[in-house]
Specification:
With about 230 residues, the chain is mainly alpha-helical. The chain is about 70% helix and about 5% strand. A hairpin with a 4-residue loop joins strand 2 and strand 3.
Length: about 230
């Protein structure tokens, strides 16, 4: 349909950044996955130490298949670590595990941005599923209110991506600080962790840019149809 292609050129910068970010995170993770830490600690062990250092004892760790599928699940109070992180002793694995532990610390401390992100998550999930169908239906029916509603729903997705940035950056800062304070990694090893986490952060920047440019594109399409 026409809306798939109209203003598609707007998304080119985001597409290029997305490809670059994916390349950076994969290459950084692959590079520092080959470097074993001096203390021979695994990702799981590092996460456990960071949790204990922050007085967190109600968060469990479990395994999840795949690579780079690591995440903290606040609904079940679980940190799920992937095949390439869980029981792997590498600078990259420790960095990723520490980042997820950082999210658990955020929840424990009541970090405002992560609470706000969880609060708007249901609206964002609805918006991601219904915004485009409603937008297109509104264009087909020449029903401006429906077009506007579709754009508003998609705006929730943009807001979610915007709030995600400080959440992820803060978790990475907490990770690096904790790894240094606990002595899990040496200063030289921390350089590798920073490289991995900085590359991962770039993927969130790319996601936000993609969402913002998509929103601008929808607004441009709606504006032209009304002229």
């Amino acid at each position: 349909m026409f809306y798939h292609y109209e203003g598609i050129w707007l998304l080119l910068p985001a597409l290029l950044l997305t490809f670059y970010a994916q390349f950076k995170v994969k290459s950084a993770f692959a590079k520092y996955s080959k470097i074993r830490p001096m203390r021979q600690m695994t990702g799981r062990q590092a996460a456990e130490i960071i949790l204990r250092a922050n007085g967190i004892r109600d968060v469990a760790l479990s395994h999840v298949g795949g690579s780079m599928t690591d995440h903290y699940d606040p609904s079940s109070n679980l940190i799920r670590l992937s095949d390439t992180v869980d029981n792997v002793a590498s600078v990259a694995a420790i960095g990723v595990a520490a980042h997820e532990a950082g999210h658990a610390v955020q929840y424990a401390e009541g970090y405002a941005p992560i609470k706000l992100r969880m609060a708007i998550l249901p609206v964002c999930q609805i918006g991601s599923q219904l915004s485009m169908p409603l937008f297109v239906l509104g264009l087909i029916m020449s029903f401006d209110a429906l077009v506007t509603f579709g754009i508003l729903l998609f705006s929730a997705t943009v807001l979610f991506q915007l709030i995600t940035l400080p959440v992820e950056f803060n978790a990475s800062r907490r990770a690096v600080k904790a790894l240094a304070a606990t002595g899990i990694l040496t200063e030289e090893e921390l350089k590798g962790t920073r490289a991995v986490l900085n590359a991962a952060a770039l993927t969130y920047v790319a996601a936000m840019l993609t969402a913002m440019l998509n929103l601008l594109r929808l607004m441009m399409i709606a504006g032209r149809r009304r002229d």
